[in-house]
Amino acid sequence: MHCFPTLSLIIVMVALMEDAREMERKPSEVISDNESEKKQETRDEMLSRHRKEISQLQKKEIELKKAAARGSKAEQKAKKKQVEEEVSQLSAKLKEKHAKELASLGYSGNASGNEKSNIDIMVKAIAGVTVTSQPDHSKASKAQQRRDKRAQQEAEREQRIEAEQGDIISDRMIENKKLERKLEPLGLTVNEIKPDGHCLYRAVENQLALLSGGSSPYTYQELREMAAAYMRKHASDFLPFYLSENLVEGASDDSLSERFENYCREVESTAVWGGQLELGALIHCLRKHIMIFSGSFPDVEMGKEYKSNDNTSSPNSSIMLSYHKHAFGLGEHYNSVVPNVIK
């Protein structure tokens, strides 16, 4: 199913306009409702709030870019330009607002005409480094020099993160486009799963609910416990694969078994990511055929021995997942794959 070329663009533009109005509205609301509190805001409280507002804007930028990465190539280009222009305007307004608020506390270069002093103060504020109102002619202490150096390093780190984030977004767009071209002819689409470390199990839970036509017979936590219990019971089948990526030279058999047991405990009681080992356990626990689609790698089929038990060739009788290498900066991610009409 395809949308008209202008529909998704209109949606993004409307979202951007609403975000802009909200950004403009929030400062006035704070001033009108909490004017007395603002007068009492300390320097550190102000800098902390500035950092939060900058972080919120950065998160909003990522969300808007994700929303713009849909549709035809021409649509994506138009939406990307619209997002960049809007984010640039929001960023400029936020910087201007922060500069005025810092000036109200005396951190301004207007009196001396020294613009560099103003910029240094803003960099330190964004990096979370305490600033002082020492006279320009005063010699900086060693402690201040160290703070200045940390502020500069933090600012450079933020620039690197932004550059890396841009690469991640680009790789994610390419990966998602390839996956979309693969799923569309099959009448399938990706159902986004929360990226909280439980994504594999939540995706399987979503699939079980879809197959049952109601709620899943198992929660994601129960699926974790089932996978861990199966791996313990069949340790001889899983231990070689576990050791292939976790081998420590000179380790005794007892220590290897203990490490594998610790790993199983993590699977059932923490948010450690799930992968091939856990999928290998789940196919036997659930006695289900699992199909894993990817935009970066060839598709993977697991549990073929259970495929014939369904007495049907329909893909809807299998658990269908998608693997994303570039979904987030933290690492791999799993989503649920569902019929297009359901999403």
UniProtKB/TrEMBL annotation:
<feature type="compositionally biased region" description="Basic and acidic residues">
    <location>
        <begin position="35"/>
        <end position="48"/>
    </location>
</feature>
<dbReference type="InterPro" id="IPR003323">
    <property type="entry name" value="OTU_dom"/>
</dbReference>
<protein>
    <submittedName>
        <fullName>OTU domain-containing protein 6B</fullName>
    </submittedName>
</protein>
<dbReference type="GO" id="GO:0016579">
    <property type="term" value="P:protein deubiquitination"/>
</dbReference>
<dbReference type="InterPro" id="IPR038765">
    <property type="entry name" value="Papain-like_cys_pep_sf"/>
</dbReference>
<comment type="similarity">
    <text>Belongs to the peptidase C85 family.</text>
</comment>
<feature type="compositionally biased region" description="Basic and acidic residues">
    <location>
        <begin position="150"/>
        <end position="167"/>
    </location>
</feature>
<dbReference type="GO" id="GO:0004843">
    <property type="term" value="F:cysteine-type deubiquitinase activity"/>
</dbReference>
<dbReference type="InterPro" id="IPR050704">
    <property type="entry name" value="Peptidase_C85-like"/>
</dbReference>
<feature type="domain" description="OTU">
    <location>
        <begin position="188"/>
        <end position="340"/>
    </location>
</feature>
<feature type="region of interest" description="Disordered">
    <location>
        <begin position="132"/>
        <end position="167"/>
    </location>
</feature>
<dbReference type="Pfam" id="PF02338">
    <property type="entry name" value="OTU"/>
</dbReference>
<keyword id="KW-0732">Signal</keyword>
<feature type="region of interest" description="Disordered">
    <location>
        <begin position="24"/>
        <end position="86"/>
    </location>
</feature>
<feature type="compositionally biased region" description="Basic and acidic residues">
    <location>
        <begin position="58"/>
        <end position="84"/>
    </location>
</feature>
<feature type="signal peptide">
    <location>
        <begin position="1"/>
        <end position="20"/>
    </location>
</feature>
